[in-house]
Amino acid sequence: MKINILSGCVLAASMLLTTSCSDFLTEDPKGQLTNETLFKKKADLDLAVNSLYSNIQGFQCNSNTMIVQCMGDDVTSTTGSNKAAYLAADVFEDPTDLKGVNDLWSWYYNIIKASNYVIDCANFMKADKSELGEQLGQAYFWRAYAYYGLVRTWGQVPISPEEVISVDLKNNTDAIPCATVEEIFNYIVKDLKAAEECNLPEKYSAPKAIGDANVFVTSQAVKSMLSAVYMSMAGYPLNKTEYYALAADKAKEVVDAVKARNVQTLLTDWNKVYSYGEDNHNECILGIYYNANTGSWGWDDSQLTCCHVPCSLPWGGWGDFLAERHFWSKYPAGPRKDAVYAKTYLTSNGNNVDWWATVDGEPYYKVKGEDGKDKTNAVFSDYRPMFTGFSVNADDKGAAQKIDFDCTKPIYAGMTLGKRHQLIRYAEVLCWFAEASARSGKYIAEAKEALKQVRSRAYSDAAAVTAIDGMSNDQLAEAAYNEHRYEVAGNVLGMVTCREDEFRMNRLKEVFDYRVGPQSDVLVPAGTLTHSVDAKGNPFEYKLKQDLVLPENMQAKGAWRGDKSVYHIYPPTEAERNPNLKR
Predict the structure, then answer these.
(1) Are 577 and 537 in contact (CB under 8 A)?
(2) Is the previous residue joined to 207 through a cis bond, with omega within 30 degrees of 0?
(3) For residue 553, what are the CA distances in angstroms to 28, 318, 321, 546, 557?
(4) At what angle do helices 8-17 and 99-124 cross, to 10 degrees?
(5) Which helix (H) or strand (E) holds 179?
(6) String of b and e for 545-558 (b: at least 16 CB within 10 Å)?
């Protein structure tokens, strides 16, 4: 839902804080709600906080700001259409369509400027600063969040001037030098420690909570993010491995709070994690809420419901974020896989088929027809698994249903919905705790118990859980790293995605090497029972006649370019204005 405490003047402030692309690092205060005219008491500062949250909604209201996540080995995109930016990220190339880098850059700096505005206004108020902790905590946290995204996407970036009211407009802020990666991470840690000092609650009540779910940033969110940031500092490119111990300490604080006060819940049924029917569960530590009154196509509407749905399904989808077949084939079987990926596709006449099904039971083929278009014997031409994290079922009138998603039933085809975006879940913190502890040699027994919790609901095979007891520290660390990638597979909305994990461990080149090679791994073995329909829609079953080996639709090419492959290009218009934006 939208945070419905916004007023007209807050919306006006929000519009003023969201500037054109030429002003990401500068702030012209003319016409703004200034400290002299408005910010005199605590309630006034709430207006600036609401404006900040409006920008946070805008940051993820559509898929453009998540395009860069296609670089991870879990997500690809449909070929053709308007997906050039997605596919360029997918194969580690500089994009010709710049909407991904442009939008992500601008929204991160919009959040930073809105956060600066809250902090700056608070500094001008006469109220006791101890009364402003809740508002300041939101601003410090989200500013850190934005810089955390910037530094992992571009590396060195400028740090925006903090005083957005009193900034000297004569300064040429377009030429701000870039801070080093280490300086940016230190700035992020400073902000998160400042947020910790604000003594944010572990849990809110309405209207800052919906049911069991917190709308505003909590102390649990701050500690969780600090753990993730310390893990990033321990990995590439800083490689300060001593930070794993700090990451373990912070994650343990989150885990201890759950044990002592049950402030978070690990859902027992994985199918409820992304369920629209359980949208307000409190396994989610940090989320973004959108308006349930869909259809406005504004910042308050989530426009993600069609993004995971392949274009060839009966109800149609956008195919923005499709599943890479290779990652799917390596993903461990169990309740989690059955929830993260659709087990079958539903045909227009109500039959359920496997994604690799063909209409004739023969091996998959793809040829050019006389009209120049690809012809295949696949039941669905996209011929790949489907992530279900954004998907919602529809009733017989096409309306979205508040139930757990079921891939055997029709999918809601609406393009906007008030479904929560989950940025951090408690299951992720358990994975971070297990990995950081193993890499630092701390809390090993507790770390193993944490990973057992994650695996217990993810696997059908009990041996996958008991195997943790016999793991060495190195094995435990690797297992926890992989479990986190499986937990967040396809969730390009998250703070730490599959791409970010692979970036931290400096393994994106491994993703590239597989994609640039023959991609010869077996995806589905011969003899697999397959559910299909023939060309007339009649259901039948057959056993796969040969191993399915199939490269991705977009083949990576050329040589690895080091940092130029790992990081994305700076928005060209920004690089033109600021000569410091170069690699």
Answers:
(1) no
(2) yes
(3) 47, 16, 13, 20, 13
(4) 120
(5) strand 178-179
(6) eebbebbbbbebee
Query: For residues 184 and 161, what is the distance between their CA atoms, to the nearest angstrom?
Result: 13
Share above pLDDT 70 across residues of the chain, in percent, rounded to a whole number:
90
Could you read off the pLDDT of 225-257 as tens digits, one per residue?
999 999 999 999 999 999 999 999 999 999 999
- Token pair listed for 447: 């770390």
Burial of residue 261 (number of CB atoms within 10 Å: 0-12, 13-18, 19+): exposed
Single-letter amino acid, residue 325: R
> Amino acid identity of 332?
P
- The reported pLDDT for the residue numbered 281 is 96
Calpha distance 563→376 (Å, rounded): 38
3-class DSSP state of 529: strand
545 within 8 A of 525, measured Cβ to Cβ: no
Cα–Cα distance, 237 to 234 (Å, whole number): 8
CA nearest to 491, candidates 546, 435, 419: 419
| Cβ–Cβ < 8 Å for 473, 401 | no
What is the model's pLDDT at position 165? 54
Give the span between the Cα atoms of 290 and 59, in whole angstroms.
Answer: 12
Under the banding of pLDDT at 50, 70 and 90, the label for residue 124 is confident
As a residue count, the chain comes to 583
List own/partner pairs for 345-348 with CB under 8 A and 24 or more apart: 345/313, 345/379, 345/380, 345/386, 345/407, 346/313, 346/314, 346/407, 346/408, 346/409, 346/410, 346/411, 347/314, 347/379, 347/533, 347/537, 348/314, 348/537
Mean pLDDT, rounded, for 54-68: 95
State how far the Cα of 402 lies from the Cα of 281, in Å rounded to an integer: 13
% of the chain exceeding 90 in pLDDT: 77
Contact by Cβ (8 Å): 459, 332: yes
Quote the distance between the C-alpha of residue 272 and its chain's center.
Answer: 18
Average pLDDT, the chain: 90
Look at residues 86, 95, 56, 83 and name the one whose alpha carbon lies nearest to residue 68: 86
Give strand pairing partners of 158. Answer: 178
Greatest distance between any 2 Cα atoms in the chain: 77
Q: Give residue 296's region: left, alpha or beta (phi > 0; psi -120 to 50).
A: alpha
Per residue in 373-395, pLDDT tens?
778 999 998 899 999 999 999 99
End-to-end Cα distance, the chain: 41
Give the pTM.
Answer: 0.93
Say if CB 387 and CB 366 are below 8 A apart: no
Distance CA 447, CA 502 (A): 21
Among candidate residues 316, 306, 490, the one with its CA nearest the CA of residue 389: 490
- Strand-pair category, 178-179 with 209-210: unpaired
Q: Strand 322-323 vs strand 75-76: parallel, antiparallel, or unpaired?
A: antiparallel
Given a cut of 80, whether residue 429 has pLDDT beyond it is yes
Q: What is the pLDDT of residues 3-43, one digit of tens each?
A: 333 333 333 344 334 433 345 555 554 445 554 556 777 88
What are the distances in angstroms from CA 171 to CA 334, 441, 535? 58, 49, 68
CA 50 to chain centre: 22
Amino acid of residue 415: M
